[in-house]
Please model this.
Amino acid sequence: MTVVPELTEHERAHEAAESRRGFLMALPAYLYLIVFFAIPLAIVFVYSFATRSRTGGTDLSGWNLDSYGRLGEDIVTRVVFRSFGLAMTTTIICLLLAYPFAYFVATRRPAVRGLLLVGVMIPFWTNFLVRNYAWRVLLSNDGPVSQFTEAVGLGETQILFTQVAVVIGLVYGFLPFMILPLYASLERIDPRLIEASRDLYASSWASFRKVVLPLSRPGAIAGSILVFVPSFGAYVTPAILGGDKKPLLGSYIVSQFLTARNWPFGASLSSVLIIVMLSATLVYFRAGGRNL
Amino acid sequence: MKEGDIPMTRKLLGLLFAFTLVAAACGGSDDAEEAAATGDCAVGQTDGDLALYNWSEYMDPDLITAFEAEFGVSVTEDFYDSNEAMQPIVAAGGSGYDVIVPSDYMVSILIEEGSIMKLNKDAIPNLSNLASDFASGLPYDPDAEYSAPYQWGTTGIGVNLSVVGEDVPRTWGLIFDAELADQYAGQITLLNDPRETMGAALKYLGYSLNSTSEEELAEAQALVAEATERVAAYDSDQYDELVGSGQTVIGHGYSGNFLFQFLELDNPEDYTYFVPEEGGTRWIDNMAVVADAPHPCTAHTFINFLLDAENGAALTNWNLYASPNAAAEEFIDPEVLADPIVYPVDQSKLEEIADTGDFEINYSDAFNEAKG
Model:
């Protein structure tokens, strides 16, 4: 509980002026978010109550919940569970790979740290789509991976167009989003706390479990969300590396817009996805915050 | 958040809501409202620079240069990769495009939604160059009021002959018949397009690819579901490269793309493309003028330019798709003209995809169900 000190008239006026100035300074950002984020999102929401016309247009007269009624269909459930499984797998693998690496980086000299972090970010300099196509070459049946297994006598490997290829692609694509927040929270840990725990006869494992792990939890939570959310709706990687065989949430929504031309249904899927993800994220953050 | 912020936030929310309603209302595609105005233009008249919205790798850049030089206008070309991606942009209005190149079924949708204008045939005298079966009577635009054919082609199968053998049976069974297809499991791609892929299965079963029978579609769905087990990928972009690079052996795709790809390889004789004996899709892409085109006269002049005999031939020689232009034939490379990949010998079993209205949802659902 913080105690709010009584403010004088003058102080209150000053506070109000500050607040106004803050608002004005944030105005460009507000406008940007409204025009390019909130309005488009609101349009998606409005469209979800509309009707598909016979020619695949969107008829906005006569609001209805038909598109939401379709969310109970078996295929939607299947697609959601499949996407959830894939996103969970990706997040867990990213967490297991990123944690030791982030720890390693955070414990280096500042100069080395900078270099390693630049290394993490270098892939962002190339377009995501291009990098996915590069993986297609690497994993194809005459690509380097296959050539290696053939050379050592294991025969040709067929990785491209499998679930394994999709997971490889997603982990590769989203790993930096896990590393960076983890690094940020690990780097902030005061080394004296670890020393103190060792002074109190904690084993190195106990000191890690009781000191480092809890203190790095905010980073792990932020990283998990940053990886899970885009993996859940991933579209490009499953299409390019998985061959789009089993529909996932991303490709299922895209097919509503681009092949069925059923925008209202596509919009209702998107709206529910956004609402569920937003609530889940809030709950996850709150839970994480309490456990600190 | 400070207390003082709340009214401001509320105001913003109210504003946001109003904006949304306006934006959503504007986005709605009101049919017939922008009733197709006839471009009142003279032959060869221009009224500004041309904005062309076309499929990629479909227009000979030399033809663009020639048009620019002849009429003293400049041309900007943007690209789309599916009719469905192009349609909402044009239908929303204010796209700024003059000429678009929609496929058959999409022409009927664009007409119904009032997104393209009636052509002023007086401004396009070269329409007389069209072969008689393309000049009128096409199901999607029976009186050829709104569109002029651009190029046509087929959807079929491209194969690696060095794997499947020269005497491979030319049937959809290579994909749908377990006995024939299982040996190629993991080396087959199908188009990631419900109408094309369900259509191929319907053709294999002996039905029309425009079937609106739920029983027939269910049979086709079962076939595609079974085929999914042996399919490497559903791919509409790289099926030709995948066959060419040896990743796959059998690809479902468009005639010209396969031919273009095979001719770039060192051993083009090892590959071929055919429409299976059960029949397949014939598609026709068309030139049309957007209802609110900023430069309708330049648009008409451009269509007339492309329907010229020599220009039409140049187009086919460049993109290797068949020309609807009868007068162009004498200028088309004889090798291309004699190529059964470009001009299939037996066209009796080809069918154009037609818009099935509400049944499109059934096609899309059946396709997603078949995939799992």
Remarks:
- Chain A has one domain: 70-290.
- The radius of gyration of chain A is 24 Å.
- DSSP finds 13 helices and two strands in chain A.
- Chain A has a mean pLDDT of 92.
